[in-house]
Design goal:
The chain is about 50% helix and about 10% strand. The chain is elongated and about 80 Å long. Strands 1-2-3 form a three-stranded antiparallel sheet. A three-stranded antiparallel sheet has the order 6-8-7, with helices on one face. Strands 4-5 form a two-stranded antiparallel ribbon. With about 400 residues, the protein is mainly alpha-helical. It has four domains: about 90 residues, Orthogonal Bundle (DNA polymerase, domain 1), CATH 1.10.150; about 190 residues, Orthogonal Bundle (hpI Integrase, Chain A), CATH 1.10.443; about 50 residues, no CATH class; about 55 residues, no CATH class. The protein starts with a helix and ends with a strand. It is built from 19 helices and eight strands. Helix 7 crosses helix 11. About 5% of the residues have low confidence.
């Protein structure tokens, strides 16, 4: 495996799959380590064939998914090849990979629901993926320097430079993100700075609120949890129909008939898939920018929410995440009789200020509620970010996703 790794590239996930295959065959062969497997099998084709067929039979007993079975066999082939273990694969009955699930590209309503329940960093990630067409694995490897927010003269679109090491094909390319993704990404970066992070050009573009740097498992797990909270967990043969990779399908589907196939493939990082495109297709960035701009209405997810009924539902859903039963019931009453969302917000805000007890901050911030307007408690991340833009600075995080801010210059 190490020898193969020096000669050709494979991802960390592929490496772990190969390692799993080696560990599995070692255990099945009753050996203490892979070296014993090599010694036992090298030069003994009959033993190898019998052992591998027996190993594959255990997959069904363990109820491994077809993709897992195929991945293990691929890892075993590599292990045998680099260690000169001969085997007649024609005598091996390999599992066949079947279609595990049917999926679909999410529609805008489903994406709005997902974003409603997503934390701030995941909102940025989802909007970037949906409006750029890049892979989630590529997003995990991007740095702050890879996004040019000043590229578009109109200030709507940002250029994303995906370096070779962040692309599955190991070829660098560029793509774009729309206004909603730009705004969400800026909020995420501002939030990290307010929390004390010192951002440099080499800082990760997106970083979860808790934990270490963004990885594919972390974004996948958070996205799946958000699907469950949003009640969008419909599955087909064990997998989510709206799984993370369908964000690329949203991008691809919504650019159809607006950009050419070669242009779409280029923006998605498929730089060598179309015939002669890898050698001859070199679109001018400014032309691609204008073509992408024409497609923005199809990639706009949030800004077309205008109905009063939907806004009320959104307010209720967001509030339900943090409110106790009695306060939630009161909010429902307010929404039922309010003439507009603004009226509902103002009335509920007055009710909350009268009845809700906010945890006393630490000693140095005891004057937080002395009425002089110096301090403000934001009740969610979006409200906190808006106050940061108004000139407030973050003092500390409170319980229940609340934030204490201090007005500068007061």
């Amino acid at each position: 495996m190490r020898k193969a790794g020096k000669k050709e590239y494979f991802s960390e996930a592929t490496y772990q799959q190969y390692l799993r295959a080696v560990n599995s065959i070692t255990h099945f062969a009753n050996c203490q380590n892979p070296d014993q497997v090599i010694e036992k099998l090298r030069g003994n084709t009959e033993t190898v064939t019998k052992l591998v067929n027996g190993w594959i039979d255990t997959f069904t007993e363990k109820d491994f998914a077809p993709a897992t079975q195929t991945g293990l066999c691929t890892g075993l082939k590599r292990f045998f090849r680099v260690n000169d273990i001969d085997i007649n694969w024609k005598q091996i009955i390999l599992p066949k990979l079947r279609q595990i699930r049917h999926d679909k590209a999410p529609d805008k309503q489903e994406l709005r629901t997902i974003l409603m329940y997503a934390p701030l960093w995941l909102k940025a990630a989802v909007l970037v993926l949906a409006t750029s067409g890049m892979r989630a694995g590529s997003l995990c490897k991007l740095k702050v320097k890879n996004v040019n927010f000043d590229y578009d003269p109109q200030g709507q679109i940002a250029l994303v430079d995906v370096p070779p090491e962040a692309n599955k094909a190991r070829v660098g390319y560029y793509t774009f993100i729309g206004p909603e993704a730009v705004n969400s990404l800026k909020k995420h970066l501002a939030f990290r700075e307010a929390k004390g992070q010192k951002l440099t050009e080499d800082s990760p573009l997106i970083k979860p609120t808790k934990g270490k740097n963004l990885t594919y498992p972390s974004i996948l797990n958070s996205y799946n949890r958000t699907l469950k909270r949003a009640s969008l967990v419909k599955k087909d043969q064990g997998g989510f129909i709206l799984h993370l990779h369908t964000l690329r399908k949203f991008f691809r589907s919504n650019l159809e008939a607006i950009l050419t196939k070669s242009q779409i493939e280029r923006l998605m990082g498929h730089v060598n898939t179309e015939y002669l495109d890898g050698s001859y297709f070199r679109p001018v960035e400014k032309e691609m920018l204008e073509n992408y701009r024409r497609a923005l209405p199809n990639l706009t997810i949030l800004q077309d929410i205008q109905s009063e009924d939907y806004q009320k539902k959104q307010l209720l859903m967001q509030a339900s995440l943090v409110l106790s039963g009695d306060k939630l019931a009161r909010l429902k009453e307010i929404l039922a009789r309010a003439k507009s969302v603004d009226d509902a917000v103002q009335e509920f805000r007055r009710f909350r200020e009268e009845h809700e007890e906010i945890q006393e901050p630490r000693k140095k911030t005891k004057t937080a509620h002395d009425g002089n307007g110096k301090y403000f408690v934001a009740h969610n991340e979006d409200e906190m970010i808006d106050k940061l833009h108004e000139g407030f600075k973050l003092v500390q995080s409170l319980n229940n996703d609340k934030y204490l801010l201090e007005a500068t210059g007061v």
